[in-house]
Specification:
4 domains; about 750 residues; Beta-lactamase; Penicillin-binding protein 2a (Domain 2); globular; EC 3.4.16.4; alpha+beta
C-alpha cells in the first residue's frame, strides 16, 4: 500500500510537469503564431530574407573624353567566371548543369585561358571535397574578355557560368597617363557577399571620382534554394544613375603626336626623364602634356614614376628663367637693348663669387643686352639684376610672376619650387635660373603674360562636365587671369626678343626654326645638383636641356615647354637635337592641324581640298575622284558601294591625306605602317574591340589581310617605334659657316649654370 501510494504521488508529479511543459510549449507556439517573432526576430522578415536575392546594380562609370569628344577612358564589359558543383542543380534537367568532370573541365579552361591545368583542377577538386555548391577561380577567372567567355560557352563544358563585372579601359594605352590616371576594381564585403566597384586611384580618375562614379542601383527578387527566380518573384528594381562625362582640354590628335615623338626620343636617347607641356597661352587650356617614365593605365604594374613631373617636380630651370629677368628690366624702365656691356665674367665685388658666361667665361667681347639675350649671357642677366633692376625689386617680380605659389591647375599633387634668394651670390644666380627651383607649369603660367598683354592665365585641364543622361553641360571652365606682372608694351618687346633667339644668326635657338611659322622662345641648360657630394654633377650629359617656345609669334596659338634630363648624346650631338625633334614636329603639325595660317607667302601655302559626299556612291568612281583631287583613298573591302568614311562631306583636308572608305563588303586591310590614330579611326568605323601592344607604327595584326570583318570583331595589333632619323637642326642656317660652332657652343656647353657656390 505504501509503495502504491508513492507511485501515485510520483505519477501526479510527472503529470504536473508534463502539463506545465505542454502549457509552456503551447503558449510559446501561440505566442509565435500571434506575434510572428522568435527571439525578437520576425519570422516573416526572416523568411522573406531567405527567399530574397538582392544584388547591387553598378552604375556605369562616366567616360573621360578629349575636348573633341574622343573617348579616353570608359567602362568595358568583362566577366567573372564561377563553377557550380552540386549535382542537385541538374535535377529535372536532361543535361548536366553542374561540373560533372573536373579533369575535362580543367583541361578545356586551361587551353582557352592559357592557364595552368593543374591549378584549375585543384580549385575544382578542393571545392568538390568540401561539398561546396559553387566556387570561383580567383584572379585567373576575373576580367575575362567577351571572346574568352564565348569560347568557353561554345566548348560545351557544363557547370561554368559568368557574372558581368565592370572593367576600366583606356583605348590609347600610354596616353597622358599621368593626367588621366587610372581606376581599379575594389572588393567590399557586405551582408550579401563580395561586391565589386571601380574607384579612381590617380589623376583625373581620382580627382573626379565622385563625378565619374555615379550612383549604384539594386535589384531584388524571390528565389528558390538554387537561386532560381520564382514564377512570381516580386521583383524590385532601383535603376543606377550613371556617372557624368568629363571632357578634358586635351586634344587627342596632338597628344598622340606628342606621345609618339617622346617615345621615339626615349628609345633613341634613353634619358632619365622627359617632360612636355603644350598650352593654349590665351586661355590656359592644356592641349597636351606628357612625361617619361610613363605607364600604361590598363596595366599599371611596376610604375617607375607616379608623379606628374611637369606640375609635381620642381627643378633648377636654367636659362629659360632669363625671360623673366629681361621682362622685369623692361618693365622697370631700366632696359636699353642697344646698351653694351663686357661679356665673359662678372664680379660685383671681391666678396661675391664670379659669374661666368656659358662658354667657359670667354664671352663674346663687348655686346649689347639684346645680343646678350640672344646668346643667353649669364653676365647680362646678373648685371641687369644687380646694377639696373635691384635685387629687392627683382624679388617682387618673382612673386608677381607667381613663382612662390601654385598655379592652381586642376590636377592633383601640384608642388611649388623654392626661391633661393638670401645671399648676393644666390640672387645673382637666380637671374639666370640656377639654385632656385620652379616647376614647368609655373614657367608656362608666367610666360603666358608675354602673349596676353602682360596678364598671366591660369592653366587647366578640365574643359566641362556633361550629364551622361541629358547631355546638358553641368560645369564649364572659363579662362581665368591671375595677375599682370608686366605691361602690354613690355610683353610686345619680349615677343621680339624671344623671336630673335630663334631667328637671328646669333641666337641660341636656331634648331627650333620652322618652315611655315615664326617661332620665339628661350633655350635652357641647367646643371643637376650632385645628391652625394654636393655641388653639381659634371659631364656633358649631366644637364636638363629645355626649350620654352611659342608660335606663330605675331599671335601665338601654342606655347610649348620641352625638357630632357641626362640624354645619352652622341659626340657630335648637342642637347637641342632631341628637343628640336619633339618641338619642331609637334608645333608644325599641330598648327597645321588647327588650321593656323602660316607665316609664309600665300604662294607657298598648301591649298586644302574639300572632301566630297561618298556614302552610297560607287566605290570605283569615288576612288578615282579622290585620287584626282590629290587625296589618298584606302578602300576597306571589295564592295561596290561606299557605306561610310572617316571624313565627313564638306570637310577640308590637306592633299595627300589618307582617307578610309568602308565598302558594303568589308574585309581586313593590311595595317602595316599605320599609326595608332589611323588604326583607331578604322576600328571606330566598324566598332571593333581593339587591343594594342607597344607603341609606334603597326607591324602585325591578329586578323588576316583580306578576311571578312564585321562589327564587334576583336582586333589585336603590335606597334614598334622606328629609329629616329637624323634631322637638320640648323633650319635655314646651313649656309652660315659658323652656325655649327654656335649651336654646339650654346647647347652642349651652355653652362650658365656651371657656376657653383663651391667654385
Amino acid at each position: 500500500m505504501k509503495k502504491n501510494k508513492m507511485a501515485n504521488v510520483m505519477a501526479s508529479i510527472y503529470m504536473l510537469v508534463f502539463v506545465a511543459l505542454f502549457l509552456v510549449i503551447a503558449g510559446r507556439f501561440m505566442y509565435i503564431q500571434s506575434t510572428g517573432e522568435v527571439s525578437g526576430v520576425s519570422l516573416n522578415e526572416w523568411a522573406e530574407q531567405q527567399r530574397t536575392a538582392s544584388y547591387k546594380m553598378n552604375a556605369e562609370r562616366g567616360q573621360i573624353m578629349d575636348k573633341n569628344g574622343m573617348v579616353l577612358a570608359y567602362d568595358r564589359p568583362a566577366f567573372r567566371m564561377y563553377a557550380i558543383l552540386d549535382e542537385a542543380y541538374s535535377e529535372n534537367s536532361p543535361e548536366d548543369l553542374h561540373v560533372s568532370n573536373t579533369e575535362e573541365t580543367a583541361e578545356t579552361l586551361a587551353s582557352i585561358l592559357d592557364e595552368d591545368k593543374s591549378e584549375i583542377k585543384s580549385i575544382l577538386d578542393d571545392a568538390v571535397q568540401s561539398e561546396r555548391f559553387q566556387v570561383e577561380f580567383g584572379q585567373l577567372g576575373r576580367q575575362l574578355s567577351q571572346q574568352e567567355k564565348e569560347a568557353i560557352e561554345e566548348s560545351g563544358i557544363p557547370g561554368i557560368y559568368f557574372d558581368e563585372e565592370p572593367m576600366r579601359y583606356y583605348p590609347n594605352g600610354m596616353f597622358a597617363s599621368h593626367i588621366i590616371g587610372f581606376a581599379r576594381e575594389v572588393e567590399e564585403e557586405t551582408e550579401d557577399g563580395i561586391e565589386h566597384s571601380i574607384t579612381g586611384v590617380t589623376g583625373m580618375e581620382h580627382v573626379m571620382n565622385e563625378v565619374l562614379g555615379g550612383k549604384d542601383g539594386s535589384i531584388s527578387y524571390q528565389r528558390d534554394r538554387y537561386n532560381k527566380k520564382l514564377l512570381d518573384p516580386d521583383e524590385i528594381i532601383q535603376e543606377p544613375e550613371d556617372g557624368d562625362l568629363v571632357y578634358l582640354t586635351l586634344d587627342q590628335k596632338i597628344q598622340t603626336l606628342l606621345e609618339d615623338l617622346m617615345t621615339q626620343v626615349d628609345e633613341q636617347y634613353n634619358p632619365t626623364k622627359m617632360n612636355a607641356i603644350i598650352m593654349d597661352p590665351k586661355t590656359g587650356e592644356i592641349v597636351a602634356m606628357s612625361t617619361r617614365p610613363s605607364f600604361n593605365p590598363n596595366s599599371p604594374e611596376n610604375v617607375e614614376n607616379w608623379y606628374n613631373d611637369p606640375i609635381s617636380s620642381p627643378f633648377e630651370p636654367g636659362s629659360t628663367f632669363k625671360i623673366f629677368t629681361w621682362a622685369a628690366a623692361i618693365e622697370e624702365g631700366v632696359y636699353n637693348g642697344e646698351e653694351t656691356f663686357e661679356s665673359g665674367t662678372y664680379q660685383p665685388n671681391e666678396r661675391i663669387e664670379e659669374i661666368r658666361d656659358h662658354n667657359q667665361g670667354e664671352g663674346w667681347g663687348t655686346i649689347s643686352y639684346d645680343e646678350g639675350f640672344m646668346r643667353s649671357s649669364n653676365v647680362a642677366a646678373s648685371k641687369l639684376l644687380w646694377e639696373d633692376i635691384g635685387a629687392d625689386e627683382f624679388y617682387e617680380y618673382i612673386q608677381d610672376f607667381g613663382f612662390e605659389e601654385p598655379t592652381g591647375i586642376d590636377l592633383p599633387d601640384e608642388s611649388i619650387g623654392h626661391i633661393q634668394y638670401n645671399w648676393p651670390s644666390e640672387k645673382l644666380r637666380t637671374a639666370f635660373g640656377q639654385g632656385t627651383t620652379v616647376t614647368p607649369i609655373q614657367q608656362m603660367r608666367a610666360a603666358s603674360a608675354v602673349v596676353n598683354d602682360g596678364q598671366m592665365v591660369k592653366p587647366y585641364v578640365v574643359d566641362k562636365i556633361v550629364d551622361s543622361t541629358t547631355g546638358n553641360v553641368m560645369e564649364e571652365t572659363e579662362p581665368e587671369y591671375t595677375g599682370q606682372p608686366i605691361s602690354p608694351e613690355t610683353a610686345e618687346e619680349m615677343k621680339e626678343l624671344l623671336a630673335s633667339v630663334v631667328n637671328d644668326e646669333d641666337g641660341t635657338g636656331a634648331p627650333y626654326k620652322l618652315d611655315d611659322y615664326i617661332v620665339g622662345g628661350k633655350t635652357g641648360t641647367a646643371q643637376m645638383p650632385d645628391p652625394e657630394g654636393g655641388g653639381y654633377l659634371t659631364g656633358r650629359d649631366n644637364y636638363v636641356f629645355s626649350f620654352l617656345g611659342m608660335a606663330p609669334m605675331d599671335d601665338p596659338e601654342l606655347m610649348v615647354y620641352v625638357s630632357i634630363q641626362q640624354p645619352e648624346l652622341e659626340d657630335t650631338e648637342s642637347g637641342s637635337a632631341p628637343l628640336a625633334f619633339i618641338f619642331n614636329n609637334v608645333v608644325e603639325n599641330s598648327l597645321h592641324y588647327l588650321d593656323v595660317e602660316t607665316d609664309e607667302n600665300e604662294s607657298n601655302q598648301i591649298e586644302e581640298v574639300e572632301f566630297p559626299e561618298v556614302v552610297d556612291e560607287s566605290t570605283e568612281s569615288i576612288q578615282s575622284d579622290l585620287e584626282e583631287r590629290g587625296i589618298q583613298p584606302i578602300v576597306i573591302g571589295e564592295g561596290e558601294n561606299i557605306v561610310s568614311s572617316n571624313v565627313e562631306a564638306g570637310e577640308r583636308i590637306l592633299p595627300n591625306e589618307k582617307v578610309l572608305l568602308l565598302t558594303d563588303e568589308p574585309t581586313m586591310p593590311d595595317l602595316t605602317g599605320w599609326s595608332l590614330r589611323e588604326v583607331m579611326s578604322f576600328a571606330d568605323m566598324l566598332d571593333l574591340q581593339t587591343e594594342r601592344f607597344g607603341n609606334g607604327y603597326v607591324t602585325s595584326q591578329s586578323i588576316e589581310v583580306g578576311k571578312p570583318i564585321q562589327e564587334g570583331d576583336y582586333l589585336g595589333f603590335e606597334l614598334e617605334i622606328p629609329s629616329v632619323e637624323s634631322s637638320d637642326d640648323s633650319g635655314d642656317e646651313d649656309n652660315e659657316g659658323e652656325e655649327t660652332e654656335e649651336e654646339n657652343n650654346e647647347e652642349s656647353t651652355e653652362e650658365a649654370d656651371e657656376e657653383t657656390e663651391d667654385e
